[in-house]
Amino acid sequence: MLDSKPVISQVQELQLILHDIHAEGMTLSESFQVAAIIEKLPPAWKEFKNYLKHKRKEMNVEELIVRLRNEEDNRNSERRFFTPNVAKANVVEHGDKYNAKRKPRPSGKDSKLGAKKGTFKKKFVGKCYNCDGMGHKASDCKKPKRAREANTVDDISHDVSNINLCAVVFEVNLIGSNPREWWIDTGATRHVCSDKEMFATLQESENGEKLYMGNSATSEIKGQGKVVLKMTSGKELTLNNVLYVPDIRKNLMFGSLLNKHGFRIVFESDKVVVSKNGMYVGRGYVCDACLS
Question: Per its UniProt record, what Gene3D superfamilies does this chain match (predicted)?
Fold first, then answer.
């Protein structure tokens, strides 16, 4: 999502996409839809996104939209309050000290103090994401930062492997690729590999489970296992629960899942850099509008 557009309108567009997926015969659980919407919130909503991820009570889509609408209304109200005209009130204009005439200083009863002109800070009326208290923001909270809690939306996203829909991959079968290369796909919901030799462990299956692509095509899943990748730094990156799909033409790395497990993925100057806890892991480059 973009900061330049209203969040609610972008959520409605995302709901239309989810509706189209449902119309194609694919089932998306309520928890998956909630996690997907939260994950797509724009950068300016980062603090609110973390608050939603830490909520213990599970929400449905309607409850999430109500919360997003209330938050957006509060943000719009604060934005309207702090206007440029109000900000000018604290600017003092100095005239020519030699030519300007001084006004006589009032005395006696006429010297009553009036209200000073200027801005005043509106008290925050929302909820703290850190302590759940009212009247202050998490950045101003005096209580210790709480640790990540169990049963959060992160756990729902991590358990996406239990959903019947295995992956949503856009136009992945249209372009040929090196079977040893891996591509970071932020739209996929699982790691996918087409090269059987790359699996360190593989549990083959013939249950007819299908992988659905964004172009309405399907490919059969032949198994699931673990892949160990040798990164440019010399370190090894282990991908668990990787789907073995021989028909797919690109090996896909689920970027959002790496991010949820503490990896930092930075896209800059036609390249992508992967690190964890400040330690360099590896990098890739943009190729044909994709990241390899």
Answer: Acid Proteases (2.40.70.10), Zinc finger, CCHC-type (4.10.60.10)
